[in-house]
């Protein structure tokens, strides 16, 4: 009886992890609505390089993350790659401006990381390489937000941050393999939020 009690309790915890993981994916998908509307109004100007790289490696990230055994926290990467694909299409249609040297460097670095992943053959190494590519893809957008905080939709990034918090809570095992990607997403989203709200904090404390 005691053993059965612990098994049922364990299943209950895992179910809560799964619910949190699915909720994270749903919140991120819903975040596309205000983001796309903001793009169409011309308020948000997404960087084509960032979203292009994120979309390209997003599919690989889902595969490598699944290969290491992630289940409950897999919903957010799936929702993320769907979102990235949609936003990339809008980015190429509505975003203006020429490609800069930083954009080309990030693309070259992403290609190199992809080659290293292909040569390694390890799911964990692949995941680390994909995260490195994701970081390279984020650089142009972080630079843009730093100089033009009004060029991104705050609500979308608040929802993305909320989804990353839920995804952390959905982790089924606190090992490096399972923790690496959710922790990276959390750090990325909180960095973007800090940069987006920096002018407001400056006014408040200025």
Question: How does this structure look, described?
Answer:
The longest helix is centred in the N-terminal third of the chain and has 40 residues, at 2-41. The protein has helices at residues 2-41, 48-67, 75-94, 101-120, 123-147, 154-169, 176-205. Helices cover 83% and strands 0% of the residues. The chain is mainly alpha-helical and 206 residues long.
Secondary-structure class: mainly alpha
Q: Which whole number gives the mean pLDDT?
A: 82
**N→C terminal distance:** 63 Å
Low-confidence stretches: 1-14
Succession of helices and strands:
HHHHHHH
Using the alpha-carbon principal axes, give the shape.
Answer: globular
Report Rg: 18 Å
Number of helices: 7
Please indicate the percent range of residues in DSSP E strands (runs of 2 or more).
Answer: under 5%
Largest β sheet strand count, sense and barrel closure: none
Q: How many β-strand runs?
A: 0
Helix content: over 70%
Characteristics:
single chain; 206 residues; mainly alpha; 7 helices; 83% helix; disordered N terminus
